[in-house]
Amino acid sequence: MTTMKNLVAGLFLIVVSFSVSAQDKVSNKAIKTVSLEQTNGEFTQKAITLSEGTYVFEIANSGVDHEVGFVLAPKGKTDAANHIKDAYVTKTVATNTKQISNEVTLTKGEYVYFCPMNPTPQYHLIVE
């Protein structure tokens, strides 16, 4: 009976060890923040070039007298079905505040970002 308890305890430690190790590898990825500022009818950053990787977008509402948001989409595919939903801010951005998006992993290509609530033009984001 003691041998069986030792075997079960050993298997439990292996499973817990594997679970913690897998979580450590996931949490060690480098996440960069891209800070963007919106004023009335525009973003102050007109174009962005990034390398492939995982990002969080931080959106600032600088003096726009209503809430704003953030949309990121592949260039030429800006309808809502193609929006990169994780890039949406987690909460609309009130005047003179900031909000962040969820994590977004970007691969090489061309994207556009804009705010339909402000509204702004579409700006270019290139991932090299």
Description:
By secondary structure, the protein is an alpha+beta fold. It is 20% helix and 35% strand. Strands 1, 2, 4, 6 and 7 form a 5-stranded mixed sheet that branches. Strands 3-9-8-5 form a 4-stranded mixed sheet, with no helix packed on it. Strand 1 and strand 2 (42-43) form a beta hairpin. The radius of gyration is 21 Å and the shape is globular. Mean pLDDT is 86; it is low at 7-26.
Concise account of the structure shown:
The chain has one helix at residues 2-27, and strands at residues 31-39, 42-43, 47-50, 53-61, 71-74, 98-100, 104-106, 109-114, 123-127.
Question: Helices, strands, pairings?
Answer:
Elements: H1 2-27, E1 31-39, E2 42-43, E3 47-50, E4 53-61, E5 71-74, E6 98-100, E7 104-106, E8 109-114, E9 123-127
Parallel strand pairs: 1-4, 3-9
Antiparallel strand pairs: 1-2, 4-6, 4-7, 5-8, 8-9
Oligomer: single chain
Q: What is the assigned CATH homologous superfamily? A: Cupredoxins -  blue copper proteins
Beta strand %: 35-45%
Sheet of most strands: 5 strands, mixed
Q: What's the structural domain tally?
A: 1
Q: Low-confidence spans: pLDDT under 50, at least 5 residues?
A: 7-26
- In CATH, the topology is named Immunoglobulin-like
The CATH class label is Mainly Beta
Element order: H for helix, E for strand = HEEEEEEEEE
Number of strands: 9
Dominant shape: globular
Average pLDDT score: 86
